[in-house]
Structures are given as C-alpha cells and as structure tokens.
Design brief:
This protein is an alpha+beta fold. It is built from two helices and two strands. It is 33% helix and 15% strand. A two-stranded antiparallel sheet has the order 1-2. Strand 1 and strand 2 form a beta hairpin. The protein is globular.
C-alpha cells in the first residue's frame, strides 16, 4: 500500500528517488492494520481519494502532487 501511495503522490520521481525515500515515508505516514486507501480511475489514471493520502512529506524538495 505504501509503495503505491508513494508512486501516486510523486509520479515524476525516479525509481531510485522513490526507493531512497520509502522507509522515511513509511514511518512518517504509517498505515495501521485496519486502515485502507481508496483509489479510483479518472481519465485513465489511478488516483488516491479521500484524506488518507494527505501529507506534507517532501521528496527531493518536491511537494506532493495529490
């Protein structure tokens, strides 16, 4: 769930950037055992829905695109 979330929040990030920041992202934005993420397809793209994706996490100085 975290990998998908990170990829959707930072669609322009490289694989190396995502991997380098994954652990920090995970611990700053924990998903509990009973949590869920809602996704939907809009205009042929998967997007996060609802407040569960909102975060101030930055990746290489970039702000979340969500």
């Amino acid at each position: 769930m975290q990998a998908i979330r990170l990829m959707l929040l930072f669609p322009d990030a490289t694989d190396a950037e995502l991997m380098a920041n994954f652990r920090r992202f995970h611990y700053v934005n924990l998903i509990q055992n009973i949590d869920s993420l809602e996704l939907e397809v809009r205009d042929g793209k998967i997007q996060l829905v609802g407040p569960a994706h909102q975060t101030d996490f930055t990746l290489q100085g970039a702000k979340s695109h969500a």
